[in-house]
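Data card: per-record layout.
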Amino acid sequence: MGKISLGVNMEFVRHDDKSFEWGVEKAAELGYEYVEPMVHWGRELLSEAGYFHSVSMLDDPYRIRRVCQRAGVKLSGLSAHAPLCKPEVSVEYLKQAVRFAAECGAPVVNTDEGPKPHWTTIEEDHVLMRYTLHEATAVAEPRDVLIGLEPHQQYTKTPAGLDRVFALVDSPAIGINFDTGNSYIAGQDPIEWLRHVKDRLIHLHAKDISVAQSDAERGQVTGTPVGCACGEGVIDWAKVVEICKTAPRDIVMSVECGTVDQAARSIRFLRQFLTA
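The structure for this 276-residue chain is written out next.
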């Protein structure tokens, strides 16, 4: 039986215009045990000035390690979404993210197939994704870093589609980062889908979807950046936790919401299921 822990994706501080360090300290203050930082290539103004939470992979990975150690939190993974269908972007990005994760101490690198090129066929896209994942797993396997495939875009919006991408490469480094909100908003049953992937589950995005967003978008989009506070939407969290407890691995439920207040309400709500 897997142990369930609570973490938070760093997107929860995006609208506060604060630094990564500020966000990690806020997560610890709210009581989260884990954080999931977002990493990017190169340099950009907002992060350099301390107005945005994303961390450049040109920085020292020990920056992330030291900040988390000071705050008393751990890393559940890195948010390193790259378009798997575009290897000219994703191959080197994911390889660098894996090396960065290994050095900063993150056990998982989360990604998805991303927007596809407008000119490729479905079969060509799967060949491109296979190439990308082969290159990424070759770097991930010797470093004991896992790559979490997330339901998010055109091919992973259904259980069969996610299964096909997962099966492209036979590697122990590939698992599923299940997103409760993305699966629901795409028109699927997130509880049944989670049961289907639980044996491959390595990380979970705890994303709730408000009734208003559900009414407006369900079945029309394949994913959504963040959700509402957990417990204030349509997801059955008691069942989510119940299924995660039967997964073979320990699972961090990384809350994906849009504000500090939503993150505070989410952890208060979710704790009841972990202590029951």
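Known properties of this structure: The chain is about 40% helix and 15% strand. Residues 122-140 form the longest helix (19 residues).

See the next section for split statistics.
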